[in-house]
Amino acid sequence: MKGITPHSLAIIFAVLALPATAEIESIQNAGLYLGAKAGKIAIDVAEIEDPSAKGLLLGYNFGHIAVELERNAADEADYGGARPLDYDTTAVYAAYRSSGVAYVKLRGGLLRETLNDNQGSTVSENGLSAGVGGGIRLSNLAIEAEFTVLDQDANLFSLGLIFNF
To answer: Which of 65, 128, 57 is closest to 99 using CA atoms?
Structure first.
């Protein structure tokens, strides 16, 4: 039987060091972050054309868990050609990001959505929201792609850029 070779010893140390590396990376990314995103809101109402959306994200990362405040504003949605509608959301999420350069993101929280017909009628609702996505960390920057359920009739598909301070 062969003894432990230097090559196999290096592999063993590399595998044992992975959790420590992930923890250091998570601690290094702890703190405040700011993001911007763009995407498309899929509204499941036949008369409304799906609008594009832009959003801002402010968050604080505690390691793998973060708290996020997100604001999205949709371009004017066409409501059957009759009148443009504004659709805005504001949400507070608890978010989880896995370790590694490429990561998985899960989030859930409270959302307030506002629909305005620009003719004096505004409807607002509060509810739960959840999302799933993934990202790539590039030093202090991250690129994320995400799917978020905003409402029973509205989902957001987005691509974002996040800067960690």
So the answer is: 65
Among residues 140, 40, 141, 132, the alpha carbon closest in space to that of 93 is found at: 132
CA angle centred on 154, ends 132 and 89, rounded to 5°: 85
Query: What is the residue range of 16's domain?
Result: 6-164
Task: Report pLDDT digits (tens) over 115-144.
Answer: 887 777 788 899 999 999 999 999 889 999
Contact, 72 vs 58, CB < 8 A?
no
The β-bridge relationship of strands 52-61 and 102-116 is: unpaired
For residue 156, give Cα distances in angstroms to 23, 76, 131, 145, 164. Answer: 31, 15, 9, 11, 23
Residue 158, domain CATH: 2.40.160.20
